[in-house]
Write the structure tokens for this entry.
Amino acid sequence: MTALDRLKDDHKLIKRYLDNLFIAHDFLVEREAVPASVFEKTLDFSKNFMNKYHHFREEYVLFLKLAEKKGGTIDPQIVSLRDQHERSRELVSRIKEALKGYKSNDEVAFSRLAENVGYYVSLERQHVNRENHVFYPMAEEAFSDDEMAEFDAEFDKIEKKQGGDSFDKAVKLVESIEADMKQKFGAVYRDRYDKLVSERGHKK
Ligand SMILES: [Fe+2]
Ligand SMILES: [Fe+2]
């Protein structure tokens, strides 16, 4: 599996996580209380899998090398991708902040949580598709097999340094978010999830 395949696998898991948050957001909009544990796990997934693991490998390996290779011609796009990573972190900080009041049934906090979860899901879905459809194909075309093998080695180093189990832990976290949603909303959650995935058709 190449470095890019590994990033694409991360994206599949991130999309599954975002689908759950999309549904959680809908419930919040309908003034249905979503278990706070779903958002606590969101903070964990975002910090440990998305920022430390996924964004780190994108920024310090892929974006860096791609920018070098393109000799400055795509710098504005790389800056914009990094900005989106940064904005994503800011939105998660706001979710974290709102979660305190949400847990004590504060109405303003409930609204702030709903609002920021919505912004976060929207930004991340757009960002992941942008990378899948524009930047990863650009990287596939720009780098030789040897260069790609160097990225693999870089990724191995980073993954090892981070304990080697970041992906597996993240899968467990998404499964646990799904279990919390199922427990609270049962068949309504399952129906919404199935509908969301089936309506996406070929762009899973
Ligand atoms: Fe990214
Ligand atoms: Fe990404």
Q: What stands out?
A: The first helix runs from residue 3 to 29. The pocket of fe (ii) ion (ligand 1) is lined by residues 55, 58, 81, 85, 127, 131 (CB under 6 Å). Residues 3-203 form a domain with the Four Helix Bundle (Hemerythrin (Met), subunit A) fold (CATH 1.20.120.520).
